[in-house]
Amino acid sequence: MFDRRRLLRVIGYQSLASLMPPLFNPSITISADASMVEDAVVDDAVVETKMDPDRSKRTLLLCGGGKLPDSLLDVFCERGNASRGRLVLIPTASPRSDEGDYSPWLDLWVKKGWKDVMVVHANDRQMAMQDGFGAELREAQAVWIGGGDQSRLSQRYCGTDFLQRMLEWYNRGGVLGGTSAGAAVMSARMIAGGVDDPQFGEGFGVLPNVIIDQHFAQKNRIARLTKAVAQSNDVIGVGIDECTGWLLEGTRSKVIGEGSVHVIHGSGSIVVHQAGDAFIHIP
Question: What's residue 252's pLDDT?
Answer without folding.
Answer: 85
